[in-house]
Write a structure and sequence with these properties.
Length: about 280
């Protein structure tokens, strides 16, 4: 919440590290909540509520869907990561007999782009996987949007999200560890971490045929109970997968832990202020 907190969920990498279940649980229990302020800011701005029919691309383990459903929205999520999607089902699709089950049940899919509930078009598409800190992290996004847009109502809203400027994101130096390890082991392969560019989101919108209609910035600090939780949370994003393949997991964990030292507090917690950006577009 590319590989990404920028993963290309609609084009999953089959060579990614094998501990998918553990990593999905780390994402859901540690990392995903870091982006909750971004979800809330977008929903407040767009007045998401009972009249909203929302499709979430790369919905992960479903926290953004859960927040929207709590506001009364009808939500559909798509994600190719089946481990994360299984966790989303646990959150959003309780047994029918469970007291307090939602009146409008969420719909979750691991492939394709389903039409809205009862065939109604979507009026909101969200992409809460922030782009802009890894080379090529938006490549799968434009075709995904192009496939989903025919299912929207005329003048529907699309929200794209991205990392803020590196100087406003304390996590940026930690992410550089992934780039350094990958490039040192495989210097012939370009890519890895790169500074966020000012027009990353506008570039995606233009390629997808969307019209920008406003933007905003949101503070999303990454806070962890201890360095071990921080390492597990950060590695769950997928941003360090290439580094793990190029070296090994223990080395990546060691170097990430070292990079976190400036952000450790006297009580042992880890705190990294970050700013994320969102772009509101219309179809």
């Amino acid at each position: 919440m590319t590989p990404t907190l920028v993963r290309n969920l609609w084009d999953a990498d089959p060579s990614a590290p094998a501990d998918a279940g553990t990593r999905a649980r780390d994402w859901a229990e540690i990392q995903e909540r870091m982006l909750a302020p971004l979800y809330e800011a977008v929903y407040d701005r767009l007045e998401v509520g009972p009249a909203t029919r929302m499709l979430s691309l790369g919905c992960g383990s479903g926290l953004a869907l859960l927040v929207a459903a709590a506001r009364g929205a009808q939500v559909t999520g798509v994600d190719s990561d089946r481990e994360r999607l299984a966790l989303a089902r646990e959150r959003l699709l309780p047994d029918e007999s469970t007291e307090g089950a939602p009146a409008h049940r969420a719909r979750l899919h691991d492939a394709g782009f389903p039409s809205g509930a009862d065939g109604a078009p979507y009026d909101l598409i969200t992409v809460f996987e922030p782009i802009g800190c890894a080379a090529g992290d938006s490549e799968g996004l434009v075709p995904a949007l192009e496939a989903a847009l025919p299912l929207t109502a005329r003048g529907a809203t699309v929200v794209l999200t991205g990392w803020g400027p590196p100087e406003r994101c304390a996590t940026a130096p930690v992410l550089r560890v992934a780039a350094r390890l990958t490039e040192s082991a495989r210097p012939q392969r370009p890519g890895g971490w790169r500074p966020t560019l000012r027009d990353d989101l506008e570039d995606v919108a233009g390629r997808a045929g969307l019209k920008p209609d406003g933007s905003g910035r949101v503070s999303c600090p990454f806070g962890y109970a201890d360095p071990d939780s921080a390492v597990r949370g950060l590695l769950s994003t997928g941003l360090f997968d290439a580094a793990v393949r190029a070296t090994d997991r223990s080395q990546v964990e060691k170097e990430v832990a070292e990079a976190l030292h400036p952000y450790r507090r006297p009580d042992g917690t880890v705190w990294m202020p970050n700013v994320f950006r969102y772009l509101v577009c219309t179809t």
